[in-house]
Amino acid sequence: MYPHFTGILVWSALIILLIRLFWFRQFTNTTKGQLGSILAGGLIFGLTGLFLGVGGAILLAPGNNLAPIIGIVLTGPIGFVTGLFAGAYYWKIRITNRQNKSR
Q: Strand, coil or helix: what is 6?
């Protein structure tokens, strides 16, 4: 049906794998918990933005077949970047609370 779709998936998976390998090499001085918090925040906020953007566009403009692009191009990436910052902020608060309890 879509012969180029498999190629896109393979290249996307390869790019994600390479980014993941270089990401963990670059941040060897940070903990896995810190990276996990940042990436989890990015994924949670990004997927929420994506689903709200696509679903909201479909509900508000059901006849417009370009409306879901708002979720894919706009609200998903904005949610992901916002989630990265939220995850970093969550990690900072968590570490601060741990340090205050240990005193």
A: helix
Written as one string, the DSSP assignment of 46-101 is HHHHHHHHHHHHHHH-TT-TTTTHIIIIIIHHHHHHHHHHHHHHHHHHHHHHHHHH
**Domain segments of the chain as ranges:** 1-28, 31-102
- The per-residue pLDDT for range 10-60, each reduced to its tens digit, is 767 777 777 776 666 655 556 777 878 888 888 899 889 888 888 888 888
**Which amino acid is residue 61, in one-letter code?**
A
**What's the pTM value of the predicted model, to 2 decimals?**
0.66
Written as six digits, the tokens of 90 are: 């969550």
Contact present, 84 and 42 (Cβ < 8 Å):
yes
Q: Which residue has the tokens 């810190």?
A: 34
Handedness of CA 51, 84, 92, 35 (dihedral sign): positive
